[in-house]
Design brief:
Layout (H helix, E strand, L loop, with lengths): L1 H9 L14 H11 L3 E5 H10 L12 E5 L5 H10 L4 E6 L9 E4 L14 E2 L3 E6 L12 E7 L10 H7 E3 L9 E11 L5 E6 L3 E4 L2 E4 H9 L4 E9 L4 E8 L3 H9 L10 E4 L13 H8 L5
Parallel strand pairs: 1-2, 2-3, 14-15
Antiparallel strand pairs: 3-4, 4-5, 6-7, 7-9, 8-9, 9-10, 11-12, 13-14
Length: 302
């Protein structure tokens, strides 16, 4: 566990908070203040949840200096809320699936980001390499979207007892036909922009074609999270009906959210349906449970 290893290597103290505290942000922040937490290593969803709750304006842990986050796309609006409450807070956005021993890319935020601006996942970590491939397994040029494929010393050997899935996801590096050189296909889509940094766009099934345009659902979600009062949001594509479905948690009603989105994204990227929930479902990894949302809002209508 990287949390425990970091603690040992730095001579620090590791506090593992009770899961129930993450249901009550104010109690969590007070406990962080009580024990003098200086750094957190959290799932991004927990970081977002505390920021959207409004608790930071009432109780911001004064000793906190660093936040390392990973698991979902980091939204600038919530970073700004934490930094407003704790000036000087250092934030690191991390990316990586379990198959790469969790983190294979990282980015230290060294400037401020607008609420509607995408935050990069940065560059590959030491001893790791990230290659973006198209559907034919060929590297894409900078500026074009491709699937994140990872190689390096942190890569797993495969899935225990499941050779079919192993051979599907762990592939020979198409750029190296000379010796065994394995890449892991993450199923995530990213783009390398002019600044030389990688930007996560969406899962592979989050890249859609709608109204004649190729769209990344992750870009719509970034815009949604910049709207005041939105606590969490996810976009799904209903292919049978050719419509984008937005499921969200927050204060605005559907009409108000639709008006706000018309100012943020082009017409062809606007969700066709807005569904408001009291709380978005989360899976065991602390991420939005998109499988459950699809069953409820897409497959349930088939």
């Amino acid at each position: 566990c990287k949390d425990l290893y970091q603690t040992l290597s730095l001579g620090a103290t590791c506090h593992i908070f009770s899961k129930k505290l993450f249901t009550f942000p104010m109690l969590l922040l007070k406990e962080m203040e009580r024990v003098g937490v200086t750094a957190i290593n959290w799932a991004t969803s927990a970081f977002h949840f505390v920021a959207s709750s409004g608790a930071l304006s009432k109780c911001a842990p004064p000793t906190l200096r660093k936040a390392a986050l990973g698991g979902e796309a980091l939204q600038a609006r919530y970073v700004n809320a934490w930094k407003a409450a704790i000036p000087g807070l250092e934030v690191v956005n991390m990316y990586g699936p379990t198959e790469t021993t969790v983190d294979c890319a990282a980015f230290h935020l060294t400037r401020d980001y607008r609420d509607d601006e995408a935050i990069p996942i940065g560059k590959a970590c030491r001893n790791m390499q990230i290659i973006l491939l198209d559907k034919d397994g060929k590297p894409v040029p900078d500026g074009e979207a491709g699937e994140i494929c990872v190689r390096g010393s942190g890569l797993a050997s495969g899935y225990f007892g499941n050779w079919e899935k192993t051979n599907e996801c762990f592939i020979q590096n198409p750029a190296n036909p000379y010796f065994r050189d394995i890449l892991y296909r993450t199923g995530d889509i990213a783009v390398k922009k002019d600044d030389g940094l990688l930007y996560f766009l969406s899962r592979q099934d989050g890249q859609i074609k709608h109204m004649g345009y190729r769209i990344e659902l992750g870009e719509i979600e970034t815009a949604l999270h910049s709207v005041d009062g939105i606590a969490a949001a996810a976009c799904l594509f209903d292919r049978n009906r050719d419509r984008i479905v937005c499921i969200y948690e927050g204060e605005p009603d559907a009409a108000a959210l639709a008006r706000a989105m018309r100012r943020l994204v082009p017409k062809y990227m606007l969700p066709n349906i807005y569904e408001k929930l009291d709380a978005l479902p989360m899976n065991a990894n602390g991420k939005i449970d998109r499988v459950k949302l699809k069953e409820q809002f897409i497959h349930a209508e088939d």
